Amino acid sequence: MIDMQGVYKTYPNGVTALNGLDVKIEQGEFVYVVGPSGAGKSTFTKLIYREEKPTKGTVNVIDLDMASLKQRSVPKLRRQIGVVYQDFRLLPTLTVYENVAFALEVIEENPKNIRRRVMDVLDQVRLKNKARFLPDELSGGEQQRVSIARAIVNYPKILIADEPTGNLDPDTSWEIMHILEEINETGTTILMATHSQEIVNTIRKRVIAIEDGMVVRDEARGEYGYEY
Ligand SMILES: Nc1ncnc2c1ncn2[C@@H]1O[C@H](COP(=O)(O)OP(=O)(O)OP(=O)(O)O)[C@@H](O)[C@H]1O
Fold first, then answer.
1. How far is CA 27 from CA 24, 61, 130, 164, 215, in A?
2. Distance (Å) from CA 196 to ligand 1 centroid
3. What ipTM was reported for this prediction?
4. Which of 105, 107, 123, 199 falls 20 to 30 Å from 71 in CA-CA distance?
5. Ligand 1 pocket, 11 CB below 6 A?
């Protein structure tokens, strides 16, 4: 599903964020990506949805070779990958329903399918009753659930969550984790970059630790392994 071999990434300012990274992730896995700030976690996830290109090395995602992927094929790749950010990134003037429907409207799904699918995912994240609310009428946890609904509305094969609980209190964070686990149970591969020792050590999954742009640890049911 995701295969990176000998991957280097140097940004135009000369900073080397990835330094010979090797990673293989199979369909249906749930993987935590941990490591110190600046280690290269976000850069690693950005290579997967082609937000960034590698400087050197091979990156294969869903059987597509990122080196030869044409710019016009990038939207097709992105339809198969959902992304959730720490800061939600909802459109503030659109309702919950519209924020989620937007992702389907841009790919010209038919209106009847859109309605059914949006209500299904809002049900999945337990927000059906808030479909008409605006983002700033919701709590942080609810906003994150909308952003998860938006990310999965297209049935993506991969869901990338970059510190999805970074702005949330502990109770709300557990709620988000249970929703991510339910999504994973339907076969979606999940990659979650996190600094939460408590989550990683409680809901045990594969842990990939990145330091200085390299994988320094990869354990099937790993631990967080840092003191911060
Ligand atoms: N667009 C960019 N241009 C230049 N340098 C960048 C860019 N994005 C990241 N970097 C640098 O690359 C290195 C790795 O950053 P990255 O965001 O991948 O780390 P991270 O592990 O996700 O950190 P954090 O846990 O703080 O989010 C850092 O030194 C960062 O300053």
1. 10, 11, 32, 21, 20
2. 18
3. 0.97
4. 105
5. yes
Is the CB of residue 43 below 6 angstroms from any atom belonging to ligand 1?
yes
The pTM of the full predicted model, rounded to 2 decimals, is 0.95
User: 43 C-alpha to center of ligand 1: Å?
Assistant: 6
CA-nearest residue for atom 29, ligand 1, is 38
**How many DSSP H helices and E strands does the chain contain?**
7, 10
Q: N- to C-terminal Cα distance for the chain?
A: 31
Strands of the chain (E only): list them.
2-10, 16-25, 30-34, 56-61, 64-65, 81-85, 158-162, 189-193, 206-211, 214-219
Residue type, 148: I
pLDDT digits (tens, 9 = 90+) for 4-63: 999 999 999 999 999 999 999 999 999 999 999 999 999 999 999 999 999 999 999 999
